[in-house]
Structures
1.
Amino acid sequence: MSSDDKPILRFDRLTKIFETDSGRICLFNSLCAEVVEGEFAAVTGPTGVGKTTLVNIIAGLEKPTQGSVTVLGKDVTKMDDDSLTELRGRNMGVVFQGSQLLANLNVFQNIELPLVIQRTDESERKRRTQEIIDFFALTQKSSAYPATLSVGERRKVAIARALVTEPTLLLMDEPTGGLDTPAVNILTPLLRGIHYLHKGTILMATNSLTLARIASREIPIMRPRILMTCQL
Amino acid sequence: MEGHLDMNASRYLFASFTRSEALATAEIVVSTAAAVILGSSFSMSWFSLALSTSGLFLGVFLVVMFMVSLEISSKRREVAILRALGAKRSSLLQAFFLRVAYLAIGGCALGVTIGYCTAMLTAECSLLSSEIVGFAVMVSFISSFSGGAVAAKKVSYLKIGEVLRQ
């Protein structure tokens, strides 16, 4: 990372506190990190350290307790809902844990959906959707519904959907989570290929050290602190 | 404008006519028909009509509110996915409002037809007029739409991150 690299994502003293019966859980412990343009960063750590929470905070779906998250120069913790929605739709692609596809839409319609939301011209929409379906080798499945797909195929559809808008920042939450070894073996080189083809910035949350190796940099998340009174 | 789904937004949320929607529509139909029949009756003054129909339409308001709340609860995941993909809160609210409006219009039309036919067949109901029908339609539409709108506001308070984790 050189000083000329443009930061796409920046965490500044980020902390998230959850209230539980056993006390308050402090996640991230004032995390400070930066991801620059074109970088493939992996947020690593065991289950429960807050990787999903971090992805949700970056996407503006949750608010941190303290600190800031800057995406493309904008502090997402201070943005109003409409601006956040626009930033998410225009500049971010998010792959959620568990794929989160709409059951009443087929593969083609699910992948096309972000372009429908952005009101992309229909011919352009169809072209881009078909292109990405071909890239992910989902052509045979384009009219299939999510219920008929395997977990690995659903994950591919979710990644394709996140990439169809050609986002500046791609967020992936446990892209191989819950997959069997053959599916992981198919998806891992695909994720590496996405980085070369996408040319955007990728942040991937994973607890798999093998998968983290395909990223150019690792951002380890500290174990959460459990305190009766959280010390910030 | 970005973030706004087209007018087909309902196709992403409402794939079919659900049981709760059918119940809400049935309540609108029955209350509208009852208001038309009551209004055309000899023994009814405007005051007693207003009093008796207010009970009916309070029922419509509550039933529609409850049914739309159920509908939203069952579609939390779909709403959260659409919001996470960049759909604006206002466009999803609009989709729910439109759905409620369709139910209200359909229910009112069917209720007026049933009420009108019943009134025509009943000897005591010869005061049927356009004012009575207009009154029944207006109050029925307002109560069902406002019940649906109050419930649809739930969409605004949905915690997307939490829903997507479940």
Note: Chain B has a mean pLDDT of 82.
2.
Amino acid sequence: MAQLNIKERQNGDVTILDLSGKITIGEGSVQLREAVRGLLDSGNKKILLNLGDVSYVDSSGIGELVSSYTTTNNQGGQLKLLNLTKKIQDLLMITKLLTVFETHDNEETAVASYK
Amino acid sequence: MTETIELSIDSKLEFLDMVGSVTKSVLAKMGFDEESAGWIELAVHEAVINAIKHGNKHAPDKQVDVKFDIEQERLVISVRDRGEGFDPSQLPDPLDPNNLLNPSGRGIFYMRTFMDDVEYSPHPEGGSIVSMTKNKQSSD
């Protein structure tokens, strides 16, 4: 079974990736990177990562979220986070990354926040 | 009285889950609460990744040893690699505004955050060893 399952859907002009499983070193991180790059390559630049069903993230996974964020920004897009679990929120907070990411706990509010 | 559990793995990331399972069992046996156990498991995971990746540089014939010393009031976890050693004081600070967007460099920071004590030392027979201590009281 894949470490990380990724389902893609649209809400208005925002592409949402519903992630479930683990974003850890190796397969999980690579899957996330490829999914985000794939969206950017096909011109989808409003990206919302739904992390509600992500059970485990390590420092590589956090690093991959950061890479996805900077890659998207560099291509003129916006990447935001939806439904952080307490664990992910803690990991982002203690490394001051909550100051970097825009995070939401409501999908409609998140979608409406894109310019 | 100290009880000891020790395991050795080849430098393969696919063995991380196995180390995770043993870590979980040790933490459950010691009665750590679920949240503390999750953070300790993450610290061990990060230490083993560092040993495989930075210490042994993924050389499959180099081993990583993980040792759990279970005491009444604390747990000491030691992870030894067969690498050339490094000076953790030379690592960039992940909280420095210039480093916030670095894709890597947070593993040891998480280990230090979630454990009560983290010490690096050279192993007398080669490689380096990181010893991480968690007191039971601090997790209550």
Note: Strands of chain A lie at 4-11, 14-23, 46-57, 78-82, 103-104.
